[in-house]
Amino acid sequence: MSFLSSLLPAHWLPRLSELMKFGSVGALGFIVDIGLFNLLQHGPIAVLAGKPVTAKIFSVSVAMIVTWLGNRLWTFSAQRTPTRVREFTGFVVVNIGGMAIAVLCLWVSRYVLGFDSPLADNIAANGVGLVLGTAFRYVAYKYLVFTGAQPTLGLGD
After folding, report:
1. Which residue among 42, 45, 140, 143 is least enclosed by CB atoms within 10 Å?
2. pTM of the model
3. In the predicted model, what is the mean pLDDT of residues 133-141?
4. CA 92 vs CA 84, 85, 102, 145: distances in Å
5. Could you give the CA distance from residue 136 to residue 97 in angstroms, rounded to a whole number?
6. Residue 130 and residue 113: Cα distance in Å, rounded?
7. Residues in Cβ contact with 60 at an 8 Å cutoff, skipping those fewer than 6 apart
């Protein structure tokens, strides 16, 4: 991060590091979700072939556990609390909120704006919805889920 440290004020670097960790954990969760879904649907064993909704629920559930652990043990490790059940419950609720944001973006695009092509659906749900949902998740995890001791990260903290 020496290149970045020459471009940014020093008090921004801890926040940038936290955001990079958050993004890395999210990317890992995305890979787990997509990989497991496809393995269950189309893999060598394809145990849930023909049951895409069941496969998706299972893959998202596993990915959610992976991302909770990654965020708890790495991204927000200084802020975790001893109440794992409360944290995990809050994490699940926040994830449902993030999903609702993506679904709302898709709904507005399709039923309010009248865009009904596959490209429009993907831009609304997996472009705009993903970005807004991810921003929501970061803020909610930081201030509602992982509420232990708040480290000083700059930017006015």
Report:
1. 45
2. 0.78
3. 94
4. 12, 11, 16, 10
5. 8
6. 19
7. 33
